[in-house]
Design brief:
With 399 residues, this protein is α/β, with parallel strands linked by helices. It is built from 13 helices and twelve strands.
Length: 399
Amino acid sequence: MRSEVKLSDRGHQVPASPIRKLAPFAEEAKASGAQVYHLNIGQPDIETPPEMLEVYRNYRDPVLAYGPSAGIPEFRKAVADYWKAWKVELSPEEVITTTGGSEAILFALLATCDAGDEVLVPEPFYTNYLGFASAASVKIVAVPANVENGFRLPSPEEFRKRINDRTRAILFSNPGNPTGVVYSRDEMQTLADLASEEGLYLLADEVYREFVYDGAAFTSAFHLEGVEDRVIMLDSVSKRFSACGARVGYLATHNAEILDSALRFGQARLCPPTLDQMASAAAFNAKGDYLDRVLEEFSRRRDCLYEGLRAIPGVMAHRPEGAFYTVARLPLKDAEHFSTWLLSDFRHKGSTLMVAPAAGFYASEGLGLDEIRIAYVLNEKDLRLALEALAEALKVYSP
């Protein structure tokens, strides 16, 4: 008779989040009276649209009931209508509402891959891809990019030499998290050509679609021709409407088989959050210049961050083109130790900062050890104070 219990291999393999794992050190720093500037997580301090908040305030139904597994009709229609502004024809029936963009990614992996299959991902990448892939028993195969050239898309040859008979898809974020890169039309066409020639799906994480700076054009995966049945769009209201706690996202595709599979996964978890979908639909349907104003604000923050990093000796960073992140290389060997030390031992005028060690955004061993991801989600005043603290910390840090 067996007397011991054993955790699953999956339970061991799911990595800790580099975004959140230093949280206990941050809490201790705050308990000691320190001001902690949070640059570790993509939680904007921008106000949520009032139209969204009004839905929560005005809800009067006596029961908060289950909704349809595919999502409530008004949210799915709002998403389809939203895409018309991007010159994309999408029907509400081609939208499956998910519990955040996280579930959209998980459903896409489950629908396209069997256990042991592989997905190509430009590296560095959104760290939670590793967690979702582990939960789905899928292997992430990294295709490295680098800070020196601003994390441009790796060459087709770099993708092709990693393709084998277990490769099922290419998963990518555009605009990039954690890099801030925005892929050009030519780079997007490279992905389309690879998908077409190699028989792969394109899993397009476009959560930061509106966050593209300097008037640059954005090419969505939905704009690519010849791969209409290969594109699976993954999106969320979290960052677009500064509503990270709403936990509403969606998966959209023209592929009927993927939609059927995603719906069955959706039925297994019953339904996405009903009231949050109502609020999210109201945000999509709202008129006004909310997103324009948010883009202007983040553009100023981007400039503030980039100029601040450039002024710090030994720091290498590129100017983000989109999203609200950048990966910076520091003049040290162990960014995780440095990031922990910032919270446990360093104070500048009673403050310190929290960043995310970038090694957790890589699958390739040994990469990103001297890099951090910075989320420029704070107002310019606090951002400047955080950068001042970072500069002082690098002067006095001794590993």
